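FAQ: What does the model actually see?

It sees only this:
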Amino acid sequence: MTFLQQGMLAALPLIALPIIIHLINQRRFQTIQWAAMMFLLAAHRMARGYSRLRQYLILFFRMLAIAGLVIAVSRPLASGWLGLAAGGRADTTIVLLDRSPSTQQRGAGTTDSKLQTGRQQLVRTLQMLGSGRWVLIDSATRQAHELESPEALLNTPSANPASAPADLPMLLQAAHDYVRGNKVGRTEIWICSDLRENDWTPESGRWSTLRDAFLEFPQGVRFHLLAYPQPAPSNNSIRVTEVRRQETSDGAELAISFRIARSTDSDQKIIVPVQFEIEGARSVMNVEFGGSQAEVKDHRIPLERTKERGWGRISIPADANPADDDFYFVFDNPPPRRTIIVAEETASEKPLQLVAGITPDPSLTCQAEVVSLEQLPVVEWDQIALVLWQAPLPTGAAADLLRTFVDRGGQAVFLPSRNPNDDELFGIRWKTWVGGTDLIPIETWRSDEDLLGRTLSGAALPVGQLEIRQYCAMAGEYTPLALLRGGAPLLARVPTKKGGVYFWATTPAPRDSNLATNGVVLYAFVQRALGAGAAVLGKTRQLDAGNPNGENPSTWNAVTEGDQGLSTESVYHRGVYAADDRLLAVNRPLVEDEARILADARVAELFRGLDFARVDDQAGNLSSLIQEIWRAFMATMLLALILEAVLCLPKVVARPVGATA
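And it is asked to produce this:
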């Protein structure tokens, strides 16, 4: 049990007051041995047991009445939050609010979502507990907003639903920075989340660093988790996987590929009506499927020949989570996917030219050109999507051209030179080649994101089947995407504000690896890099909410009436936006369609060593998480006083028959 007025518990020793008074009264009388009285006491000794029990009960009820009064004025709470208000009123209360699409899931039989319910519960709880300051850090902006009162959680746009995913380690880092930067006193951190694994990234090394950082605060920081882990019992989601505009004999058409997934894997067939909207023009098709998902390839919708660029939306009927019931897309005539290759040896040049020049789709044009260092200044860089570089790292003017290319949003992939030197580019330099007689196995790789991620069907690339005979070590700051046995990087990405920079530690040459002969991984990698580089060349782009990918959201104007909030938050909300002469479609990221819930034991492990409490709630719950129960203790006090008064009444003595007054 916890108390809002813990200072009043200091009066609990007053429970002993009836005993003290009883002992004092015992000392007021002097005992004198008197024979007649001794005879009467001896005669009454048989009835003394009941009298003593009666006296003990009177003493107990008096003590109980005092205890009930003291506890009642201490304002006890009934709650699942162990130690909720321990330590008294907080100096600062920080709310970390998960606004991701999954929190818009509604409860069974209610229209309230997890996010709405969580906000209401937080308002009730924080109003009761009180604080010197309230601060909101939301999962989209990750900025600290000071609130006038807890009620502001219901009105501020920064607490409304968003299409961007949450990153709990980043939210906790923002809370840590706020506590440290503002030198606040005793702090309470409240986390409202639905415990999706993709939002918590439990395998991240940032958790141990955060635990140590919070433990260093001398004032103490307490964590409370308000969790909504219930999966949707029946929910469908839709996602566009590909949109192509193509010419036909009658004009033009859109070929739209999409996927419908449902939360339950059942053999029972269902029919889902899918609505297509192309700039206001609507059409519907029914999709029947069983199992967990259905893939529809190249559903064709006629277009006017003059309609070369535009936007659309695909949607399904509303269900448990409206955040995944529609998906926006934009279309245009795709620009050519042009690649330039700089290679010092033919054994690497030929495979690279082959995988970059073979188009994965007849509607796309792929061009791969081998150039020399001397030709770089005359390359039409504004039409290049990808650079493949297998040569010594460039310096001087050539390096400046590549930096400008990446800053514009281009993709650059570097493979090691046969004779590495000390030159450095993008913070990376090649060291020495490492190899032997045995193959070097691949230990781990990132299949959840980036260019080695799974295919749209969920299949993983066969990275583990690659045969690495030798590799070149690298030095610098990078993010490993694939690691060899022993921890050496096979593929690494360099963090950049725009574009992409990748370093392979081996080449397609037969003496280095089988990247060329087992070409699935190399082809998928290069084509994905080409697609990312070509995306910035066209007049349309598909973006994940929360990731502008080099765009400037301050210049965006909403084209559709989606769930846009403030204009400054456009990048966090699904919809279609115009940026100068381009169209941008913003949607929830692919990871938001994953429904894996973080296990309870894993949550406890993440907060190991911290002052942490958790309670589970469900969407639509209207009852308060905590309640004051002082009335029960006041009733206990009154009942104890009544019983004490009854026991104090004198014993009624029956009169003899025939006796007169």
